[in-house]
Amino acid sequence: MVTGSLRCGEPVTQASLSLIDTKDERVLAATQQETPASDLQALATQASAALLKRLGLSVPVHYTTSDEFQGSPNLVASQNWSEAIGSLSRSETQIALQATARWSRSSHVSPRRGCYGSRH
C-alpha cells in the first residue's frame, strides 16, 4: 500500500510517500520530494520514480513540460511541438502523437535518445 501526505504551498509543494508491506507491517521504501507549486505532474513523476529506485527497479524515461524542462529555443518555437503540448493538455492524444511525429521528423530527433526531454 502507498500512503503519504501532500503539503501544498508557495513557492513549493511537498510530497511524502511510503510503500508499506501490509502483511508484515513494515515500510519497504519512502521518499520526500518537492517541486514548484505549479508542477504537480513533475512531483508525481519524481516521487514514484524515487520509490521504484529504492526498490531496485528500473525507472523508464519520462518527458515533461514542467518548469525544469530543458528545451532549446528551437523546440519552444516549434509549431508542431506547441500543437503536441496543447493537444496533451486537452487530452487529445492522437493529435498529440501526430504532432510529435511531425516534430521529430522535422527536427531529426530520435525519441529514444531523448535529446530534449528531462529524465526522471
Outline:
This protein has 120 residues and is of the alpha+beta class. The chain has helices at residues 40-54, 73-77, 79-89, 93-107, and strands at 2-7, 12-21, 26-36.
Structure description:
The two termini are 22 Å apart. The longest helix is centred in the middle third of the chain and has 15 residues, at 40-54. The protein has helices spanning 40-54, 73-77, 79-89, 93-107; strands at 2-7, 12-21, 26-36. Strand 2 and strand 3 (26-36) form a beta hairpin. A 3-stranded antiparallel sheet has the order 1-2-3, covered by helices on one side. It folds into 2 domains: 2-54, no CATH class; 64-120, no CATH class. The protein is α+β, with helices and mostly antiparallel strands. Helix 3 packs antiparallel against helix 4 (93-107).
Label this structure with key terms.
single chain; 120 residues; alpha+beta; 2 domains; three-stranded antiparallel sheet; 4 helices; 3 strands; 38% helix; disordered C terminus
What is this structure's SSE topology?
Blueprint: E1 2-7, E2 12-21, E3 26-36, H1 40-54, H2 73-77, H3 79-89, H4 93-107
Helix pairs in contact: 3-4
Q: Which overall shape is indicated by the principal axes computed on the Cα atoms?
A: elongated
Instruction: Give the rounded overall mean pLDDT.
Output: 76
Reported for the largest beta sheet, the result is: 3 strands, antiparallel
SS class: alpha+beta
Main β-sheet, spatial strand arrangement: 1-2-3
Helical content stands at 25-40%
Q: Helical element count?
A: 4
Q: Percent of residues in beta strands?
A: 15-25%
